[in-house]
Amino acid sequence: MQASLHLEIDSIVGEVDPRLYGSFLEHLGRAVYGGIYEPEHTSADEDGFRGDVLELVKELNVPIVRYPGGNFVSGYNWEDGIGPRESRPRRLDLAWRTLEPNWVGTNEFMMWCQKANTAPMMAVNLGTKGIDEARDILEYCNHPSGTYWSDLRRSHGYEAPHNVKLWCLGNEMDGPWQIGAKTATEYGRLAAETAKVMKWVDPSIELVACGSSGRTMPTFVAWEEEVLTHTYDHVEYVSLHTYYGNSDNNLPLFLAQSTQMDRFIEEVVAICDYVKAKKRGKKDIHLSFDEWNVWFHSSQSDSNLPSWGIGTPFLEDVYTLEDAMVVGCMLISLLKHADRVKIACLAQLVNVIAPIMTQNLGAAWRQTIFWPFLHASQFGRGRVLRAKVESPTYNVGELSDVPYLEAVATLDDAGDNLTLFAVNRHLSENLDLQAQLGGLKGFVLKEHLVLQHSDPKATNTAANPNNVVPRAGGKSQVEDGKLSATLEPLSWNVLRLERQK
User: Fold this and answer.
1) 495: Cβ–Cβ under 8 A, 6 or more apart, which residues?
2) Where are the beta strands (DSSP E) in 170-236?
3) Distance between CA atoms of 501 and 499, rounded to whole angstroms?
4) Do 258 and 218 touch, CB atoms closer than 8 A?
5) 66, pLDDT greater than 90
């Protein structure tokens, strides 16, 4: 099989916002308790945070982490998680039927963010709470001093404000599973008024309004149009959420799902631009894809787990090579739309449908999906080049013309490092790629990384953490302004080119 790709140095899709490589921590399962926080662990620091997990998070170079939810936030009293730990109440978390001890709250999360070299993306409760609670937590986090909430923060040992710049106005408020679910009009009005007041407290913040919980929601499109009509003047972003699975064990269909992600993004962009025109607006609403991942492995086993525990191992998907290919394709989809998708959060970061897994009191290791995310975060910075791709295609289910080649290229800000990310969706055949590098003179091949395995179901475990790992030495070369590469079946490829000085 053969495919071609043409790049031009001056044909730019958009700048990559570093926040495209964000992630997510919710008070769910072992994400927090047993994930980032485990005081009894041998690697734990003086604040109870696992050092081995911190090192893996720092390796991923995650610029933002969304917190504390997720469904959890719609029933969360943020005041329960501040002040002396011994006086904090235990609460029933109705979103996940667990017990929340409030050992980790707002200040602990801010402390962890500093240790992890990341920034907080906070969510406010617009399920059981509203305007007052949103302005109160913002004042607690961001106001310097001299008010009730800012002085309370200082009395808790945090003299300097946390200075949180990015806030989500609730979570999945269209979902009937959500505590305090609302109609588009109910949510749109509440979100607009909350946003208005929050920006009166701190005009420097940016806000994300809730879009549909997924593209298959019956209210999708109508929800976005109504919500943005109310919130357009007050927010900078609208959220998108999507998860893909392979419960039917139809691998060609599973691998094609990122084409639906492309369509989802383009549909939401169209709605944002429609509202902009309707409002006679001047600004573009950008997209925050603040929940995305593969999620299906744990669905059946989770139904047998007991309720009302602390750190119950919910949503602990063990990821395969197949899953890593889909995550790679989804990363490519995000990059291809970097002009409008400015924020994205891989959901989630540790243990809960996550790239990092841990054992209680034991090891931490990298899941298969860790690798494409790491590569994109490391090398997918700067500008996305517009690529003309010609590839053989296949049809599966209701999807047609799915390209075997999924690819995107980035050029760093200095113009000296070009990276091509490419997935070969074919299960058994090599894909021979010819890439024309128009205007990209003087580039030589620096490295060709390949993530591939003879068993598509291969996983990484505590006993065998390096079963699925990338290797250098893929078959490729650059000659006379043309990149030639052989992409192995079912493989994730990172081709790094460097301009000769």
Assistant:
1) 419, 420, 422, 445, 447, 448, 449, 474, 476, 483, 485
2) 206-209
3) 6
4) no
5) yes
Cross-strand partners of 417: 498
* Rounded alpha-carbon distances, angstroms, from residue 325 to 182, 297, 320: 36, 16, 9
Q: What is the pLDDT of residue 164?
A: 98
Render pLDDT for 144-159 as a digit per residue (tens, 0 to 9): 999 999 999 999 999 9
Q: What is the mean pLDDT of residues 226-242?
A: 98
Residue 501 has pLDDT above 80, yes or no: no
Set 172, 224, 316, 406: catalytic member: 172
> Does pLDDT of 334 surpass 90?
yes
How is the chain split into domains, by residue range? 2-10+384-499, 17-379
Catalytic site includes residue 291? yes
Checking DSSP bridges between strand 383-390 and strand 2-15, what pairing results, if any?
Answer: antiparallel
Name the CATH superfamily, with its identifier, for domain 2-10+384-499. Golgi alpha-mannosidase II (2.60.40.1180)
Residue 174, token pair as written in the block: 């269209």
Cα separations in angstroms, 160 against 68, 133, 143, 449, 472: 21, 21, 9, 43, 45
Q: Per-residue confidence at 97, pLDDT binned at 50, 70, 90?
A: very high
Chain mean position to CA 174: 20
Q: How far apart are CA 401 and CA 406, in angstroms?
A: 12
pLDDT above 70: percentage of residues in the chain: 100
User: What's the CATH code, domain 17-379?
Assistant: 3.20.20.80
Among 449, 427, 475, 408, CA closest to 321: 427
Residue range 99-110: average pLDDT? 98
Other CB atoms closer than 10 Å to residue 163's CB: what's the count? 14
351: left (phi over 0), alpha (psi -120 to 50) or beta: left
List, for residues 416-471, the tens digit of each pLDDT value.
999 999 999 999 999 999 999 988 888 999 999 999 999 999 999 999 999 999 99
Question: Residue length, the chain?
Answer: 501
Whether 172 is catalytic is yes
Catalytic pick among 133, 139, 291, 406: 291
pTM: 0.96
Query: At what angle are helices 51-60 and 370-379 packed, to 10 degrees?
Result: 50
Residue 35: CB atoms within 10 Å: 26
Q: How many CB atoms lie within 10 A of CB 78?
A: 22
